[in-house]
Design brief:
Helix content: 10-25%
Radius of gyration: 13 Å
Oligomer: single chain
Distance between the termini: 18 Å
Bound molecules: iron/sulfur cluster
Order of helices and strands: EHEHEEEHEE
Strand content: 25-35%
Largest sheet: 5 strands, mixed
Shape: globular
CATH architecture: 3-Layer(aba) Sandwich
């Protein structure tokens, strides 16, 4: 049973309560399809310019998180043709932020949660 934490972007924190993120996690779909068994462990909110993310990751680890996922809306956008990488999501620096969280926590960090764009291969820092 892998304990999953999520870090979302503050720019979407008052519009989406991670509804599809949680649904996919519980159903082991999309960004969570890699797990045989997993459970939600906690959620934190990144704040621009992302300096807090590594500390959030350390707290999540101390609470038992075994992997940290970053929400899809941070790097992809909803379009008429579905979710797309074109034009990006809320964050221009997400890869750097994820890299730092991974480096400072040692935890697997995964870029993606729900509704992955069609042309996207899940990016994982292990
Ligand atoms: S990835 Fe989708 S479900 Fe998750 S927080 Fe962003 S908009 Fe909401
Ligand atoms: S640094 Fe990126 S992920 Fe963090 S709040 Fe700002 S835009 Fe969102």
């Amino acid at each position: 049973m892998t304990k999953i934490a999520m870090i979302r972007c503050e720019k979407n924190s008052e519009r989406c309560p991670l509804t599809n993120c949680f649904r996919c996690l519980m159903e082991k779909k999309e960004g969570f399809a890699r797990y045989n068994d997993c459970q939600p462990m906690g959620v934190f909110t990144c704040r621009c310019p992302g300096e807090n993310a590594a500390d959030l990751g350390k707290i999540l680890k101390s609470k038992g998180a075994e992997a940290i996922h970053f929400t899809t809306c941070s790097f992809a956008k909803k379009t008429d043709e579905g979710w797309s990488l074109k034009n990006g999501g809320f964050c221009d620096d997400l890869d750097k932020i994820i890299e730092r969280v991974h480096r400072e926590t040692g935890l697997p960090c995964i870029k993606g949660t729900a509704h992955l764009p069609k042309d996207y291969s899940l990016k994982v820092w292990v």
